[in-house]
Amino acid sequence: MFKRRVKVSLKERLLNLFWPRLGWKRYGQYIIARLDRLKGTPREIAAGVACGVAISFTPFVGFHFVLAAVTAWLVRGNILASAIGTAAGNPWTFPFIWVSVLYTGRKMLGINHTDVVNVDFETTFANAFKALIEFDFATVFNDVWPILWPMMIGCIPFYIIFWLLSFYIFDTALAKIARRKKVVKS
């Protein structure tokens, strides 16, 4: 009943991931409309999204949904909106986030390593995951910790800045939609 008349090909769906057919503006409007349908006030939803966006800047890959839900719960935000907010961290943005966070963390700690770009994040995170599963803490402290520690410190300013920025953007947009709805109803 609600299916498409012409089925979208796999190639078209993959291209749509990289560049939405109707454009990025329309995609942004779609996300705002989806968020507006969630239960809660604009502030609760915006706080949830902000928690998801901010958590995307932490180096705890694989735990972003859980951490976003916990932080959203702590600030009384919408937990489902926090899951949507974690989409800010994705395969296209993670390389930039990780390099920025690592560079910032090293600067904050006073570590003078200039070759931040040469860090193999994929191997580092794979080794971390494998070491945690096997309880191999020697690998964690020798191979993973020298990269993870600066990233944990470096994510703090990004977390704060992007939480505030995304909260303001989404709170403003959702409050504007709520005002429009109120005017239409009366």
Report the mean per-residue pLDDT as an integer: 84
**Gyration radius, to the nearest Å?**
20 Å
Helix percent band: over 70%
* Broad shape: globular
* N→C terminal distance: 34 Å
* Largest sheet entry: none
Poorly predicted parts: none
If helices are DSSP runs of H or I spanning 4 or more residues, what is the number of helices?
A: 8
Query: Which structural category do the helix and sheet elements fall into?
Result: mainly alpha
H and E string: HHHHHHHH
**Proportion in β-strands:** under 5%
Total number of beta strands? 0
What's the arrangement of secondary structure elements?
Layout lengths: L9 H9 L5 H13 L5 H14 L8 H11 L4 H7 L8 H16 L11 H13 L3 H49 L1
Describe the structure concisely.
By secondary structure, the chain is an all-alpha fold.
Structural features, described:
71% of the residues lie in helices and 0% in strands. The protein has eight helices and no strands. It is globular and about 65 Å long.
Comma- or semicolon-separated keywords:
single chain; 186 residues; mainly alpha; 71% helix; 0% strand; globular
